[in-house]
Amino acid sequence: MRILATFRIALRALRRNLMRTLLTTLGMIIGVAAVIATISIGNGAKAQVEGQIASLGQNVISVFPGSFSSGGARGGWGSMSTLAPEEAQMILDEIPGVVAVSCEVRDRQQVMGAGQNWNTSVQGESPDYLSVRGWSLADGVMFTEADVKAAGKVAVIGKTIADKLFAENDPIGETLRIRNMPFKILGVLKPKGVNFFGQDQDDVVVIPYTSAMRRVMGRQFLSAILIQSSSPEQMARIQQAATELLQQRRQGREPDFTVRSQLELAQAATANTKTMTVLIGSIAGISLVVGGIGIMNIMLVSVRERTREIGIRMAVGARGNDILLQFLIEAVTLSAIGGILGIILGVGSSYVIAANTDWPTVTSPTAIFVAFIFSAAVGVFFGFYPARKAAQLDPIEALRYE
């Protein structure tokens, strides 16, 4: 009962100076709202990046041409390739947990179709490319292993190519010319949009990698090998096994390839987002401290204004702990009210930002809970000194105070 009575007294005191109470909570409201909105924007950016990384495929490990030394000069990532199609087949055959592999060669070419032309990315791939990339066809079929063996002049195109060259016609069965060689269009890929690197994934022509190497690009080696793992848990083991297998093929020579997993790419891509979220969130958190200082300032003023009231309460039997509890409750109530209103403002701001911009936001229940608990903790921390000062007042001196 004593605690409930103290709580009622504290609330009555706050209602007595309602405008001052609201102005005191304003710093806490802004601080909590800023923290929640900042974290929501950061989480939204992280989710967007992760979604774009996921669009590159599921459980993908990529082998790229890597560093090498020649006459004292070192080449960088992708500077030279010695990756061969048989190495991709060895990875598929000899490493457990590998479910699909695609040999890849890439180039940009001017393509023509239906009287139109367009400069686009031409990619030579294996039939398993769609599985590795987690891609599907909107229409038509994928080329087969037989097309690869025969270096067939067949192609699957992205939505952008279909729109640019065959806007008025169904592209399935039409002829697409690459370096003046006719390729029959077998299928159209489902649209994927822009990837993490800002590239239009639908602006692509996919042909058998043998056709790309022999008929279009005149290459002997691959641009990359794409490996699909059976599960995320297997990726580290497969990455290590692929590295060892390829190195054995080179008989001790310095590695001229780089093996990277999709997890590493995702971690690198989200690292900057996490750093910026923490940085901006920390800056926003400073406003919570400023709000706490405001609460302490007002509570000190309140103690001074109510010195005689404190003396009367002590004279009729209130103990120091009762006075301490009363002022602590007032401080925590101020910060809690600010926290609740700040949560409402922060969540509302996140929705407004998402609705009026192309920037996604993800509001985390954990962030809301932590922001509220932190605001209450700020009230306790900054309210304790004024409350302790009030509790230590001498009753006789307090009664004499004017």
Task: Explain this structure.
With 402 residues, the chain is an alpha+beta fold. Helix content is 56%, strand content 19%. The chain folds into two domains: 2-52 and 270-400, no CATH class; 81-255, no CATH class. The chain has helices at 2-16, 18-54, 85-94, 129-133, 145-149, 159-165, 209-217, 235-249, 262-305, 307-315, 320-356, 365-391, 395-400, and strands spanning 60-65, 68-70, 73-75, 98-113, 116-125, 137-140, 154-157, 175-178, 181-189, 204-208, 224-229, 257-261. It has a six-stranded mixed beta barrel.
What's this model, at a glance?
The chain is of the alpha+beta class and 402 residues long.
What's the total helix number?
13
**Most strands sheet:** 6 strands, mixed, barrel
Uncertain stretches: 68-79
Strand order of the largest sheet: 4-5-10-7-9-8
**Strand portion, in percent?**
15-25%
- Domain module tally: 2
Distance between the termini: 31 Å
Helix-strand makeup class: alpha+beta
N-to-C series of helices and strands: HHEEEHEEHEHEHEEEHEHEHHHHH
Residue share in helix: 55-70%
Report the principal-axis shape. Answer: elongated
How confident overall, as mean pLDDT? 81
Total number of β-strand segments?
12
From the alpha-carbon coordinates, what is the Rg to the nearest angstrom? Answer: 33 Å
